[in-house]
User: What shape does this take?
Amino acid sequence: MVKKLQDTTTLHNGVEMPWLGLGVFKVEDGAEAVNAVKDAIVNGYRSIDTAAVYQNEKGVGQGIREGLEATGLKREDLFVTSKVWNSDLGYESTLAAYEASLQKLGLDYLDLYLIHWPVEGKYKDAWRALEKLYNDGKVRAIGVSNFHIHHLEDLMKDAEIKPMVDQVEYHPNLTQKELHAFCKEQGIQLEAWSPLMQGKLLDHPVLSEIADRHNKTTAQVIIRWDLQNGVVTIPKSIKEERIKSNSDVFDFELSNEEMEKIDNLNQNLRCGPDPDNFDF
Assistant: This one.
């Protein structure tokens, strides 16, 4: 069981990935990104998740440098993720996109690089590029984001390397049970984006009742539910108080009954696009 903020899961290639990290979707580049990332590192976070399309890699990189300086940690103490955007999918263009992300972040390597969306006809060439980056030692782990089971099966038919991570929308209204079971079977680590459903679940009566019982917030209950389900999670916040609060989930445990109650909130409801039907 996950006992502290720095605890990790071991990916199928042996790389250790923190269970809990900071997501920076919709965090503005500049001071907002710098401060959120620095605050997260100072408060014990060891995983930061960004993407080319977030347009904040520069600020994230600066926040990493300031966070390392403030704590005396080394680059290798952190786990940094970015993602290649749809318009760059393709063999050469993915390799170029990776280098562009590194340059903006000011880093020599990434710990995890993901294909952001399964654009039909393009993700296999992009995956070959990720395999090259991995085989060349330029990235420690590779994976995908927003891939359904059929996308994963299609990719793995021709892949030399199986994805290590699938980062998907995952929260109590979208529990993705079949995908989760498939990933477990294949040794692919499931990771949750938008674990709090962009704040839409924070007043849910079932979650509020469980939170009151444990003297916790609904956000803390949802994050704990993720971790007890064996799902890596990256809640986003730009406020230091909330960043700290989101990580204060290691002094309580949800019972089997509570876990089941939360599981039963599933409605297959998304706040983001369906990977089978997206247009961007």
